[in-house]
What does this fold into?
Amino acid sequence: MFSRKQTYETSNQGSSLDDLSRKLAVDLRKHVRKLDHYPPYTKDWLGLSESLLHISNIALMEHRVPREGGNDDSTLWEGDELTVRFLLEEGKLNLCLRLMHEYKLKQAELRPKGGEYDAFLGATAKTLDLPDAEQLKARLLAWEQSLGVLLRCAFEHIEAVQTTDLPELMKHAEEVLAAARVTPLSDAEFDRTQETMMLRYLASVMHRAETLGEERVMPQVKQLGIVPLVAQHLHTHSVALKTEGCLAGATFLALVFDTEDYSTYKTSYVTPEVKALLKDFKPLFLAELTAEMEQRRKLRPLLDEVLKAGG
It folds into this structure.
């Protein structure tokens, strides 16, 4: 039996943990509320880095904790992932998407200019009180990675996807994937950047297309040519995307190929150019991804299209 002293100590410990949890929650919400809209490459915009890193680290830790009872059907408000919940409650999710969209759009505009882009970074570093362009590049990468992880964790929840500005997300996807076609990227630039994360976002949305309603998702996927862009992205960058990125892209394609809209408008999604790309998928990455039966089952719609293409 516990002594009266032990009982008091245990009760006191529980109270201390509750107090700590409340303080951490208050601190987290404070960082979420700090997020605001600023133009890319400005001091205030880059100043969001600290809050983004703090929030994204907590979001990732929460995301990795197994859900109680392994129930994936529980709502966001029934679980313990406070970060995404606070993002929605404070109306910051679409702000985060807009911040990322504007940054990648500006980056895509500047990066192909080569020496001009480096000169721009050097001049911008001075206005931001940073030593040089390399320091600014490191800060920009950390900014993008933090916000990218935060968005990824958010899109794992149906409540977040339901409130997301889907037209902006799809336009962002189109622009990121199109930019990656024309601008050479190093393998390092794919590490948790939008060039990889975008495939995770798209797969998350497609996983929830039935709940959202295909009519909300598929017309945008079709009109913006997302399937050809994803196929090209996987074909060109499979090594840099690594297993995780390739799996996300393959999952997105498999889910698209399993929709009613695809069965009705196949040629609108899979052009002759896409078929030529699909032929190479197995040796590039698909054979490795489908080595196990369970993964083959999940990617079956994609495997069927690869087979039809002669791959």
